[in-house]
Specification:
The protein is α/β, with parallel strands linked by helices and 448 residues long. The protein is 32% helix and 25% strand. Strands 1, 2, 3, 4, 5, 6 and 16 form a seven-stranded mixed sheet that branches. β4 (112-116) and β5 (119-122) form a beta hairpin. α1 runs parallel beside α8 and α3 (46-64) packs antiparallel against α4 (78-102).
Length: 448
């Protein structure tokens, strides 16, 4: 039986951070992942997705400026996009493994199961460790209804050799919207079926409604208040049964994708055998990212039930916290700065801090600025149809509590709002700053 100071389940950004940091301090470290090293973000999520979006951004920009200096709207070559995307994906696992080897970290490529409080079964080997970290990330929700196995995953979408002529996405979260926008701009017929009345429920709904409008304008069929109850294969396409309050509708598509959420990938680890407390949201952790029932267990990233959003930078932050507590003893409490999050549709939608409803729930004395600014110069020069902001200001401290945007490059602008919230910059200090002009950031003083 091999023994380690630290053993990590999962080689995404959280696991990678913990492994390398612990190894750098002389601890013996082992790590395993049943999938290629790199995690969801680098291999099956945000990075390859953003590479693909790049081509659709060019097409979108050209379409907006057609007749204003641009004569031809380029076509998107799906095969070329996939080939370009794959250059990023293919280099990642060997690069990560080479780094582990350089740092003296033992690598495994098998699933893990707990045998006891400090022992794991890794493939054919038993592993014992003083500290064990669960950083196994998340995976697509299992669709329990009849024919649920016909639905492909987000990973499948990112590896399509050819784009189907018609696609249907189950669920109204950011994955559905981002991939639907990509597919629609590449010429596919797209449908989103969401069981709730509001898609993207965790975002500021006054901004979401503008994304819904832009999504419909793109030609995407958005079906709300409808729960998918079955999928059946009919010849070379699929029929999806959608049940609403008073009727059942049928939708057909060449491919169906499961974008109904991603629960933590922890339920096959036999956690009960190690006395590990967990819920459907993840491994239960305290302020040190340490399990609440088994003190030698830690968790980080999407596998942990924490206050952090399911974002790569948050996983890295939690990873650093776990590593510090393993190395120096439990001394460092997790502390989350403002966490900006983005829906990479076109237009992009970005958010950081409190929504209006959350600020009111906590009895802040707030001022809300909510405005459509399609006539501002930046909107007109880019010929965008949607440019809207909603900012929430604390009247007592004259600081920003939240910012919610939709429009061109809001994925960049939102970072400046995050900095302002973290540093508690006064509204007047921001208003009197000199921003380079004309830039999208120069609009910020007018938003507060």
């Amino acid at each position: 039986m091999k023994e380690y100071d630290v053993f990590i389940i999962g080689s995404g950004m959280a696991g990678m951070t913990i492994a390398n940091k612990c190894a750098s301090k002389g601890l013996s470290v082992g790590i395993t992942d049943e999938l290629p090293y790199g995690g969801t973000c680098a291999l099956r999520g945000c990075d390859p997705k953003k590479v693909i979006i790049g081509a659709t951004e060019v097409r979108d920009f050209a379409k907006r400026l057609k007749g204003s200096g641009i004569d031809t709207i380029p076509k998107v070559n799906w095969k070329d996009i996939m080939d370009f995307k794959q250059t990023f994906v293919d280099e990642m696992p060997p690069k990560i493994e080479k780094g582990y080897k350089k740092n003296g970290i033992d690598t495994f490529h098998s699933s893990a199961k707990f045998i006891s409080q400090n022992t794991l079964q890794i493939g054919n080997e038993k592993i014992k460790a003083k500290k064990i970290v669960i950083a196994s990330g998340s995976k697509p929700r299992v669709l329990e209804f009849k024919g649920g196995h016909f639905a492909k995953s987000s990973s499948d979408f990112l590896n399509l050799e050819e784009l189907p002529k018609s696609l249907l996405f189950i669920g109204g979260g950011y994955i559905a919207f981002e991939f639907a926008h990509i597919a629609a701009r590449c010429g596919a017929e797209v449908t989103i079926v969401h069981r709730g009345s509001n898609p993207l429920e965790n975002f500021e709904q006054d901004i979401v409604k503008h994304l819904v409008s832009a999504t419909k304008e793109l030609g995407i069929n958005l079906i709300l208040n409808t729960e998918v109850t079955a999928i059946e294969k009919v010849d070379n396409h699929y029929r999806v049964n959608g049940k609403s309050a008073d009727k059942t509708e049928y939708y057909e598509a060449e491919a169906v994708f499961n974008s109904a959420g991603r629960p933590p990938a922890i339920f096959d680890l036999d956690l009960e055998k190690a006395d590990i407390a967990f819920t459907k949201k993840g491994v239960s952790v305290n302020e040190y990212m340490q399990n609440t029932s088994n003190p030698i267990i830690y968790s980080a990233g999407d596998a942990a039930e924490s206050d952090g959003l399911p974002l790569t930078p948050v996983a890295v932050l939690e990873g650093h916290t776990v590593a510090s507590n393993i190395i120096k003893g439990d001394h460092k409490k997790i502390s989350y700065p403002p966490m900006p999050t983005v829906v990479f549709t076109l237009p992009t939608m970005a958010s950081v801090g409190f929504t209006e409803s959350k600020a009111r729930e906590q009895d802040y004395n707030i001022r809300v600025n909510y405005k459509e600014v399609g006539k501002w110069f930046n909107a007109k020069r880019l010929n965008v149809a949607e440019y809207v902001f909603k900012t929430i200001i604390d009247e007592d401290t004259q600081t920003i509590l939240g910012a919610h945007l939709i429009g061109p490059h809001t994925e960049e602008t939102i970072n400046l709002f995050a900095m302002a919230i973290k540093t508690k910059m006064k509204v007047n200090d921001i208003r009197t700053m000199i921003f380079s002009y004309p830039t999208l950031a120069s609009d910020i003083p007018h938003m507060i």
